[in-house]
Design brief:
Length: 142
């Protein structure tokens, strides 16, 4: 065959098929930037959904921790006042030093604020910047 008839037989489709024989199969190629971006966006959406679900639970846990720790300190302070009539209202440090609270007891509320003990007419109240003895306060309210 001459060259001219050979060129006519080589249609664009045939050239494409011939060129593709030397390419690696699609399964062996890497991921495109668009595919990677889609995966990253999906992961960000999942992380956002988890954060929306978890953050309110974290705040609730801080409130529960604050109430529990305050009750522990109040019990220790009440015992201190009962066993030491006529003494001043104890501080949290006094309760630790005298052994009414165990070493290692966390004496801060759920947000890291220190507790203060108030004694009035035999009634002991434990407060912090975010806890008034009964209720959790909004940040900076006390």
């Amino acid at each position: 065959m001459n060259e001219r008839t050979e060129e006519k037989k080589q249609t664009p489709l045939r050239r494409l098929r011939r060129a593709s024989r030397w390419r690696r199969p699609r399964s062996q190629e890497g991921m495109t930037l668009v595919e990677i971006m889609i995966v990253v966006i999906i992961m960000a959406l999942i992380a956002t959904g988890v954060a929306v679900a978890v953050l309110p639970q974290l705040e609730s846990a801080k409130e529960d921790t604050t109430r529990t720790r305050a009750a522990t300190i109040r019990s220790a302070a009440t015992l201190y006042v009962a066993q030491s009539p006529g003494s001043d209202c104890p501080s949290v440090d006094d309760l630790l030093e005298e052994g009414y609270l165990q070493d290692g007891t966390d004496t801060t509320d759920g947000w890291g604020n220190d507790y203060t003990i108030r004694c009035e007419r035999g009634d002991v109240t434990v407060v912090s910047d975010r806890f008034d003895g009964e209720n959790i306060l909004e940040e900076g309210a006390n």
